[in-house]
């Protein structure tokens, strides 16, 4: 069974904009699915349907077989990590505290949280001894993005939604981050939906690529085969 399933999912915003027409789309377990297409074609809306940041106007979305309209959004978001461009780290919390956001909600004890935070910083290539106590303003763009990924993975969510996650990083750093993220995703087996307008990124990262056109139409679904690019 797919981990995420969109069934005739539709979003019409209050002003009448139909961002996504009845979309049918499955995301398989452990798959890294990339949504690609021009700006304004409904990619972010589609992504945000999966964690209920956007409520559907019609149709439904199932996550792990459950209709998410009938799940508690807070509980849902603990199982679904979310990474956006410019990350949205809490500016007055240290890197360690940022990463511990979901563990704190889940009531993890101090030791478990510390161990996990250190593990995650290692995973994204940041020395915990150096970075745990820093504040977001003390980080470069690429470092912030790494922390965003670490924070999203803190409670080991089965699903990760990523919206232009590397968009704010300079081209050289971006290439490296993409490769590292790809390795992390393989290692953890997290099911990922990633939105980008960068076709190069789509080809480099995607197991499959969903090509959107205006109005949230799924134009094409292709298996990504360009493994050499990685
Ligand atoms: P067309 O008018 O040729 O159907 P669309 O852009 O609507 O143009 O559809 C192109 C492709 O997108 C279809 O072949 C189908 O795979 C997919 N598609 C069409 N309608 C939907 C839909 N409601 N939900 C999901 N995918 C769709
Ligand atoms: P993409 O991620 O592909 O750039 P979006 O999903 O952000 O596309 O937007 C799809 C369409 O929905 C666009 O026409 C956009 O202007 C519109 N849209 C997005 N958010 C809102 C909103 N909150 N209210 C009204 N229209 C919106």
UniProtKB/TrEMBL annotation:
<dbReference type="GO" id="GO:0016887">
    <property type="term" value="F:ATP hydrolysis activity"/>
</dbReference>
<comment type="similarity">
    <text>Belongs to the ABC transporter superfamily.</text>
</comment>
<keyword id="KW-0067">ATP-binding</keyword>
<keyword id="KW-0813">Transport</keyword>
<keyword id="KW-0547">Nucleotide-binding</keyword>
<protein>
    <recommendedName>
        <fullName>ABC-type quaternary amine transporter</fullName>
        <ecNumber>7.6.2.9</ecNumber>
    </recommendedName>
</protein>
<dbReference type="GO" id="GO:0015418">
    <property type="term" value="F:ABC-type quaternary ammonium compound transporting activity"/>
</dbReference>
<feature type="domain" description="ABC transporter">
    <location>
        <begin position="4"/>
        <end position="230"/>
    </location>
</feature>
<dbReference type="GO" id="GO:0005524">
    <property type="term" value="F:ATP binding"/>
</dbReference>
């Amino acid at each position: 069974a797919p981990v995420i399933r969109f069934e005739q999912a539709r979003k019409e915003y209050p002003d009448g904009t139909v961002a996504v027409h009845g979309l049918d789309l499955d995301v398989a377990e452990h798959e890294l699915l990339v949504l690609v297409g021009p700006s304004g074609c409904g990619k972010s809306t589609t992504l945000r349907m999966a964690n209920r940041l956007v409520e559907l106007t019609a149709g439904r979305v199932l996550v792990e077989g459950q209709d998410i309209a009938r799940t508690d959004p807070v509980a849902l978001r603990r199982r679904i990590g979310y990474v956006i461009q410019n990350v949205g780290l809490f500016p007055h919390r240290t890197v360690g505290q940022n990463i511990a956001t979901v563990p704190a909600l889940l009531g993890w004890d101090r030791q478990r949280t510390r161990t996990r935070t250190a593990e995650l910083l290692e995973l994204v290539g940041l020395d915990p001894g150096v970075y745990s106590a820093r504040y977001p303003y003390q980080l470069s763009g690429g470092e912030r993005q790494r922390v965003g990924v670490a924070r999203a993975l803190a409670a080991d969510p089965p699903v990760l939604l990523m919206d232009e996650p590397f968009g704010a990083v300079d081209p050289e750093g971006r290439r490296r981050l993409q490769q590292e993220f790809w390795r992390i995703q393989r290692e953890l087996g997290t099911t990922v939906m990633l939105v980008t307008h960068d076709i190069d990124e789509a080809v480099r990262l995607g197991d499959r690529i969903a090509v959107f056109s205006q109005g949230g139409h799924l134009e094409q679904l292709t298996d990504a085969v360009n493994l050499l690019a990685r």
